[in-house]
Amino acid sequence: MKDRAADPATVLRLLTAAYPDARVELDAETPLQLLMAIVLSAQTTDQRVNEVTPELFARFPTAADYVAADPAELERILTPVGYYRQKTKAVQKVATVLVEQHDGQVPSTVEELVAIPWVGRKSANLLLVGGFGGSALAVDTHVKRLAQRLGWSDATSPDDVETEVAALFEPADLGAVTLTMILHGRRVCVARKPACGECVLVEVCPSCAVVG
User: Fold this and answer.
1) Which pLDDT value is given to residue 4?
2) Of all residues in the chain, what percent carry a pLDDT higher than 90?
3) Out of 122, 144, 160, 193, which one is annotated catalytic?
4) Active-site residue 122, yes or no?
5) Residue 73 and residue 88: Cα distance in Å, rounded?
6) Which domains, and CATH codes, for the chain?
């Protein structure tokens, strides 16, 4: 499909116009808060995470606070997000690494972030965009699906999708690409029944007649 792929500049222009206030939908005010929210978001929704994080963030404002926390208290707070025992262990392990290796601060490079347990490349890139105002391409299921439907990548590996799609844009635009593609994938270009009739990309997307 790459021979009839959508023009990247046109897609970004249309998506930016459609989502002018695009942001990470996990509520967080600091890199630490966003990192913990990302860890908690595995196998649940951002909305569910946002329901528990106000109490979590108020109770544990620093990485050291998570390390010193009573696991039972964390489990109580995290019960609504599912897998609360595993996620309690995850946030305490992440916090321990931050305290022992980064003076309690969240590092701001992909290399340092992916060395932290429970943090993969997608999460690291999303944290750079949402927590540090950086520019990176975070390939989640939505970005991967849109990249395939737009004819930008046939790859199945998120790392390969990242490489191919990132090459189509200026580095400074990758944050906007990430945020707008995630929102569009969640709201319009969904997996099973994409709303092509409501899509701002309908005139440029090579897949609209196939999946819509």
Assistant:
1) 81
2) 96
3) 122
4) yes
5) 9
6) 2-22+137-211 (1.10.1670.10), 31-132 (1.10.340.30)
